[in-house]
Amino acid sequence: DKHHGTAIQLLKKGKHLLIEKPITTLLGDAEELVRTAEKNGLVLGVGHVESYNPAFCAAEKIAGRPLFMEVHRLAAYPPPRPGTYRRGTEVGVVLDLMIHDLELVLRLAKSPVEKVEAVGMRILSPDEDIANARITFADGAIANVTASRLSQEASRRFRVFYKDSYVSLDLGKRTAMLFSTKDGEVAKENVPVRDCNALEAEIGDFVDSSLKTISTGKLHGMKASGRHGLDALRLAADRIRAYHAR
Description:
It contains six helices and ten strands. It has helices spanning 2-12, 27-39, 54-60, 93-109, 198-216, 226-244; strands at residues 17-19, 44-46, 68-74, 113-121, 130-137, 142-148, 155-161, 165-170, 175-182, 185-190.
């Protein structure tokens, strides 16, 4: 894990930092990075780019408490790179792909994780290539999250169910549909999505947050902050991977 060794040196030199996800692979290392950044009033962002996906941003504006979330993130097995590991297989699919959706689920749930049940299987890599996690939150909400890097087709689907409605997101196509019940019938409508380049939005957030922090002397955190990255890692590495490794 080279993230921690490089990042801690930059933070100790007073540099604002945007680091790719996962923030680190070890929980203790991530906690040190977050602690160091906060102690020194530095912006620490993590590349959870789906937080800036315009479809997800539109869904965040829908009022209501999520009761159930169903998430599927599927990808083809990574292509080889000469002389190196296949892209992404330095870690299992939980830290490679699922962690994107865990950060989103935590962002929507706004409730502590109470229970985790998970399973993962190694097929072509040293670590798991497919995994599923059922996460129960303290307020009773449940998230069922699946990630695979063995699919023939890529898919990034996210559905959030509320009391009388649900929203269906296609994060790949950046679209959102709202389904609601009215007079015993199901109504369907497009959720307005202001399209944008999520990576550009993420980098812009980092630059803006850093400049505001420098000009005001007061820390302005990013949307996908180091603490968000830490929380996602804690769920992924400390709860999900630990569970299916038993």
